[in-house]
């Protein structure tokens, strides 16, 4: 929005959306003398709606306003006829202005048959738009041809490599995948042949800084090649473009007829589009356009594309029409330049009713009464579901955070994804996610950190990072995040006018706030719900050869039994994920095992696993250059014979484990075999949380080892300790200082990480379990005269509580309250522990603590009783190990028996000298993977979505999704802000997703709380509630569902009582009371609503924190059938005309 003028006149420059808003608010346009609408050929929905409103006002109340429509390529006769005000007045006048541009010659595919790649011209089909592979090579051949043209034009000898002036090339492709493919083709030859190409991809997801490259001149002798979507068709003008290569394809947003979701559909471009693209050349010199289709095929193209109003959802347009309140939407839209189909109007009305913007009392499929929520939506420049998010944020006292999320999702993402750094960009998003598994919270976290740093003046401090440096390192685009900031302020200003004000209850990163915010997100985006599909634990363990699935990925396709030769190459491939890996080879497979830090929970999937799987999803190639079979056999024998002198070298081992450059093999103390009672005494030495703590087994042998270590290390009060004689490296054993109660002592430690520039090392104290940062200069060597200090096994054992998990945790992590309670119970005392299982060197324990009065407390059960934990099923591996230990205990003590998973195969320490001679490598192979069996797929909950295949968009933090607890019999729930259709109508794309906490019964509670209408199922005996059918309800005249595609039938897996239903209805009533107004502004004052806000938020937290009793799901006898409850059993709650709160039970 911009204005220029004087006392006599004023010119305002506005977007079409701003013009529409001004006209709808004023319900007239005679405050202007002229209205000029440019680029009307684009025929987006706002342009067509603006034309409709302008024409209506010309007839209704503003006949003297002059309207001017402009475009370089549009059917002027159709527009002139549309604005014929009366039947006999004739069409509106048309003025043609001849532009000045250079000649642009047109060429088609058959004219390029002399090129090598076009020995056979591919076939083209109007009903099957596609790009044949040979056309990518044709572009490369054309670029060679352009050099010949320019040499001839500039009178340059053919012997000279390039002409002095190499014209820029603009290539039009339909999407990101096609751009990536052509870039790969060009870059390969550019590197191999030194062609001096400057390749610039141009599409919506690249950074603003990368987009600016298109306007920069290339270096001398370089050719600028811009590979773009239709963003370069009219949005930007590059003056030095001489050549345009047009594949004559575009991706248009359309509504899928089977799902009513939008999708980007690949289509042949219209002639108007192609003419616009042609106009990109010839600005400064004679140009050329090469259309990569035959001329005869091009002549079949339509003159103009299908207007957006006939192919896209009409929800926003109808909402504005309801606000305008001139007539019913279908009546008004009938006067559009190209009226939409009646079915599209009906679908839009259904979506508005589902979003609570219109009431469904009238049962008119093409209209409804505008609610207060609808009036808020019409006042905000947002999608209706994002407006609903803000409204619910107001109800549940997280308004500021919902405004930030809505503003971020409504604009182009402020996260950058540089063309060649997609994995780094994903890693950055994981950091912003902070284990919330929500794209919405990723935006919120990043925005709030940026805002805080800006307000504190951190970017202006000398010696610190500038705003641009900070943004670049965090993959954030400053220009776009500033746009979000402006929109946040605009939204708050508009809400203030409707008396919707923030009480500054801002999002804090505590579990309750995260939980409430996720529930608000789920409520706003109803019914875009999905459930994780179950996994089979036996299959998981088999696929990973009993390796820990939380820290391992699988790669296959290696040469059989020769995998060890490529250990270094594999390590290099996965360096982008982690430097600390172990590789286990077996036949054609390699198991990449990432090291777990001492502070990470053994039940969570490691970040390197996410990154490795993301590599596969991004299509990053895993290629190996391999030896010939004979050479590979010889080299394997050499390596294995040098490492294992006692093995028969003629037999290759089935499994080989490679460890890279270990300085010291850390040996851990053996876990006692099960005795008759299975009880051991332990001392807990360090607590990370209840899911990860370290303990020392108390026994005469371990006590003697501890005394020996103390005496040896502390000898002569540390005077004999020496500084490190060698440079500190990761994994080395040393002595490190630890200060407690003002006294500093030295203990055995293993170096985990080094920060040499800060003189800091992160060390793990192997006999206690804690990790600390110390100065590298304070590290001490273990004396060679005391080798037993090296060889004595680490005395600290990692432990976890058995058969419990964090209580209703949004992130699956133990909260501070539970950890502090646990510490007070176990600190500094000897504890009895029963070993449930030992898996991946972690003891799962049942703890018994005796208090001063002699009463024994069973900590695992007590944590459940006090509401800090809830019962959990152990993993398959844990239960399997438990069964083995239980059976073994029946036979008494079995000294020397092995009860854990121990490999007797070959282990190799891989050093730099093991790298092979690359000159003897013969050919390349492609590997498959990486895979992890904890990866999950999702199934839709609505009637229409349950039969579809769902994928999460590639930029989402949930694009790689795991089920870390497959042993649990219930599923986690995923919420999508919006849904689209993929390349096939069977494929759904979920965008801006949020993974809800994995809680039993949560999907049922979400549906009960936020569905517009709910009918509860009962069993035959009418003794309990068994499930729910939710959606828009049914037509009482015939019993038909109002919106069957979006109905959700869900059986309860928890016991829900009448009292629970009353509490849920109480929350729904609170929403009604807070949002009930017959005008455009809320009538209640803040002090009147404060109690309702507090009670509503408190009640939803009580529901979520309740210990729900599990039950077996009972499926409805008549699924997706409404009105199944007999009338004498029906109870009605009070109704408020804003939200349908009826629940049938």
UniProtKB/TrEMBL annotation:
An annotated GO cellular component: cytoplasm
GO molecular function: hydrolase activity; RNA binding; RNA helicase activity
Domain Tudor residues, every copy: 727-789
Entry superkingdom: Eukaryota
The protein's name: Probable ATP-dependent RNA helicase spindle-E
Domain Helicase C-terminal: 157-325
EC number(s) on file: 3.6.4.13
Domain Helicase ATP-binding: 1-92
CDD domains listed in its UniProt record: SF2_C_RHA
Organism name: Parasteatoda tepidariorum
UniProt keyword list: ATP-binding, Cytoplasm, Helicase, Hydrolase, Nucleotide-binding
Keyword ATP-binding annotated: yes
Broadest EC class assigned to this enzyme: hydrolase
Reactions this protein catalyses: ATP + H2O = ADP + phosphate + H(+)
């Amino acid at each position: 929005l911009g204005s220029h003028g004087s006392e006599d006149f004023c010119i305002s420059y506005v977007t079409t959306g701003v013009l529409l808003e001004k006209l709808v608010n004023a319900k007239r346009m005679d405050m202007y003398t002229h209205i000029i609408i440019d680029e009307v050929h684009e025929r987006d929905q706002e342009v067509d709606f603006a034309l409709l409103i302008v024409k209506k006002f010309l007839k209704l109340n503003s006949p003297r306003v002059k309207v001017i429509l402009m475009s370089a390529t549009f059917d002027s006769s159709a527009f002139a006829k549309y604005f014929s005000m009366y039947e006999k007045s004739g069409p509106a006048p048309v003025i043609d202005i001849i532009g000045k541009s250079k000649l642009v010659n047109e060429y088609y595919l058959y004219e390029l048959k002399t090129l090598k790649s076009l020995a056979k011209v591919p076939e083209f089909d109007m009903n099957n738009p596609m790009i044949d592979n040979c056309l990518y090579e044709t572009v490369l051949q054309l670029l060679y041809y352009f050099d010949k043209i320019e040499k001839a034009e500039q009178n340059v000898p053919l012997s000279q490599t390039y002409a002095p002036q190499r014209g820029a090339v603009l290539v039009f492709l339909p999407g990101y995948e096609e751009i990536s493919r052509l870039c790969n083709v060009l870059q390969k030859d550019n590197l191999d042949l030194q062609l001096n190409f400057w390749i610039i991809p141009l599409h919506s997801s690249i950074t603003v800084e990368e987009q600016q490259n298109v306007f920069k001149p290339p270096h001398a002798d370089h050719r600028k090649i811009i590979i773009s979507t239709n963003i370069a068709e009219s949005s930007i003008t590059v003056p030095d473009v001489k050549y345009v290569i047009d594949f004559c394809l575009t991706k248009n947003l359309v509504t899928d007829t089977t799902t009513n979701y939008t999708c980007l559909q690949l289509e042949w471009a219209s002639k108007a589009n192609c003419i616009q693209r042609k106009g990109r050349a010839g600005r400064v010199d004679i140009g050329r356009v090469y259309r990569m289709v035959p001329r005869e095929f091009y002549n079949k193209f339509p003159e103009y594309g299908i207007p957006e109003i006939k192919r896209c959802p009409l929800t926003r347009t109808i909402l504005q029409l309801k606000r305008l309140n001139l007539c019913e939407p279908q009546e008004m839209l009938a006067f559009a330049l190209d009226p939409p189909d009646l079915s599209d109007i009906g679908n839009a009305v259904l979506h508005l009713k589902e979003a609570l913007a219109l009431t469904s009392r009238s049962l008119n499929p093409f209209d409804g009464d505008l609610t207060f929520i609808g009036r808020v939506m019409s006042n905000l420049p947002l999608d209706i579901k994002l407006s609903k998010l803000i409204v619910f944020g107001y109800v549940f006292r997280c308004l500021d955070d919902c405004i930030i999320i809505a503003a971020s999702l409504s604009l182009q993402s402020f996260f950058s994804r540089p063309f060649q750094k997609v994995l780094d960009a994903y890693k950055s998003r994981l950091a912003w996610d902070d284990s919330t598994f929500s794209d919405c919270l990723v935006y919120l976290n990043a925005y709030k950190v940026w805002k805080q740093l800006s307000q504190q003046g951190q970017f202006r401090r000398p010696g610190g990072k500038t705003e641009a440096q900070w943004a670049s390192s965090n993959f954030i685009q400053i220009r776009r995040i500033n746009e979000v900031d402006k929109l946040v302020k605009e939204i708050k200003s508009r809400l203030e006018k409707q008396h919707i004000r923030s009480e500054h209850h801002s999002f804090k990163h505590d579990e309750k706030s995260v939980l409430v915010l996720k529930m608000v997100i789920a409520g706003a985006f109803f019914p875009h719900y999905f459930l994780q599909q179950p996994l089979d634990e036996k299959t998981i363990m088999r696929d990973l050869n009993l390796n820990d699935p939380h820290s391992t990925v699988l790669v296959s396709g290696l040469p059989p039994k020769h995998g060890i030769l490529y250990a270094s190459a594999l390590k290099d491939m996965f360096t982008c994920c982690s430097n600390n890996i172990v590789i286990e080879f077996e036949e054609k497979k390699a198991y990449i095992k990432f090291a777990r830090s001492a502070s990470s929970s053994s039940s969570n999937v490691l970040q390197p696993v996410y990154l490795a799987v993301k590599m596969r999803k991004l299509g990053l190639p895993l290629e190996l250059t391999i030896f010939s079979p004979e050479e590979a056999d010889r080299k394997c024998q050499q390596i294995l014979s040098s490492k294992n002198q006692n093995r028969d070298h003629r037999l290759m081992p089935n499994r080989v484990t490679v460890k890279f450059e270990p300085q010291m093999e850390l040996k851990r103390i053996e876990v006692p075999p099960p005795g008759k009672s299975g009880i051991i005494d332990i001392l807990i030495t360090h607590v990370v949380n209840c899911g990860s703590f370290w303990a020392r087994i108390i026994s005469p042998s371990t006590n003697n080892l501890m005394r020996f270590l103390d005496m040896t290390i502390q000898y002569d009060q540390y005077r004999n300790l020496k500084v490190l004689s060698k440079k500190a490296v990761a994994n080395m054993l040393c002595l490190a200082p630890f200060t407690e109660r003002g006294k500093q002592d030295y203990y055995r430690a293993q170096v985990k990480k080094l920060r040499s520039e800060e003189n800091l090392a992160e060390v793990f104290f192997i006999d206690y379990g804690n990790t600390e940062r110390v100065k590298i200069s304070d590290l001490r060597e273990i004396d060679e005269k005391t080798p037993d200090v090296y060889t004595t096994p680490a005395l600290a054992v990692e432990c976890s509580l058995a058969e419990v998990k964090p209580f209703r945790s949004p992130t699956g992590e133990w909260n501070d309250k539970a950890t502090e309670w646990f510490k007070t119970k176990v600190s500094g005392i000897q504890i009895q522990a029963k070993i449930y299982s030992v898996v991946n060197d972690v003891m799962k324990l049942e703890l018994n603590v005796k208090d001063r009065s002699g009463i024994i407390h069973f900590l695992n059960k007590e944590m459940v009783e006090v509401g800090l934990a809830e019962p959990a099923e152990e993993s398959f591996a844990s239960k399997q190990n438990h069964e083995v230990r239980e059976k073994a205990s029946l036979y008494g003590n079995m000294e020397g028996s092995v009860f854990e998973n121990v490999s007797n195969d070959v282990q190799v320490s891989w050093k730099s000298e093991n790298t092979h001679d690359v000159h003897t490598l013969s050919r390349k192979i492609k590997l498959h993977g990486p895979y992890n069996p904890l990866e999950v797929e999702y199934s839709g909950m609505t009637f229409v979505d349950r039969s579809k295949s769902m994928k999460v968009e590639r930029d989402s933090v949930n694009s790689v999704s795991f089920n870390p607890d497959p042993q649990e019999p219930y599923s986690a729930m995923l919420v999508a802000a919006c849904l689209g259709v993929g390349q096939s109508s069977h494929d759904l794309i979920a965008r801006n997703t949020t993974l809800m906490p994995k809680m039993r019964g949560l999907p049922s509670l979400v549906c009960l709380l936020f569905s517009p209408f709910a009918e509860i199922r009962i069993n035959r005996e009418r003794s309990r509630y068994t499930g729910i059918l939710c959606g828009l309800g049914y037509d009482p005249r015939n019993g038909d569902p109002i919106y069957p595609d979006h109905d959700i039938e869900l059986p309860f897996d928890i016991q829900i009582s009448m009292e629970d239903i009353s509490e849920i209805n109480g929350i729904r009533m609170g929403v009604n009371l807070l949002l009930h107004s017959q005008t455009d502004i809320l009538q209640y004052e803040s002090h009147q609503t404060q109690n309702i806000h507090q009670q509503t938020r408190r009640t939803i937290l009580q529901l979520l924190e309740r210990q729900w009793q599990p039950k077996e799901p009972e499926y409805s006898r008549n699924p997706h059938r409404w009105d199944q409850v007999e009338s004498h059993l029906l109870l009605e709650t009070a109704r408020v005309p804003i939200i349908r709160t009826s629940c049938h039970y």
